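User: Show me an example of a complex going from sequences to structure tokens.

Assistant: Sure. Here are the input components:
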Amino acid sequence: QKEVEQNSGPLSVPEGAIASLNCTYSDRGSQSFFWYRQYSGKSPELIMFIYSNGDKEDGRFTAQLNKASQYVSLLIRDSQPSDSATYLCAVGHYNQGGKLIFGQGTELSVKP
Amino acid sequence: EPEVTQTPSHQVTQMGQEVILRCVPISNHLYFYWYRQILGQKVEFLVSFYNNEISEKSEIFDDQFSVERPDGSNFTLKIRSTKLEDSAMYFCASSPTRDIGNTIYFGEGSWLTVV
């Protein structure tokens, strides 16, 4: 059973702080890794994806991937109250394109 | 910005009734998907569809479910005889390719309530 694990939270950080969200996955053959944001009752919204070891930065967001440790993380710098949402980690194989396995999600709360 | 559109946004149906959820994927996308999310639970893959046939399906996608692309724009999910446990948010999604790093875009979802 391919699993994606996240700490469900809630994770609470003050406005302006760095929020760190973590995800581990069980399938070593996984090749692509995605972070989605989901507001309550809404659809997942893609934040970024990563498929090479190391860091990938996009504005206030940095994704980090360590395939040896089967670990992917998302850092949010200068957190804003509008970042309060559930963050979903998703893992996929390019030859099973579209079959994303999602984690449970981590609820982030940014306090003003 | 192009988006995946879904109808209806919310449907209430009696147990045992047939339901069809509709989706219009992004126009130049070739791969289409349905996912579902039961309230408070994970987003789960149901099925992927390419070139007018199912590419992959999950264990959830049993004989009660079917998908169809009846014309050049719509993509539908049919649940033949709904059960209480089919109550969930159903997300349609599409992507341009299946390559590594492929990004999948989700519609706003159809909330299905089976009573």
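The lines above are the inputs; the final block is the predicted structure for all two components together. Chain A has a mean pLDDT of 92.
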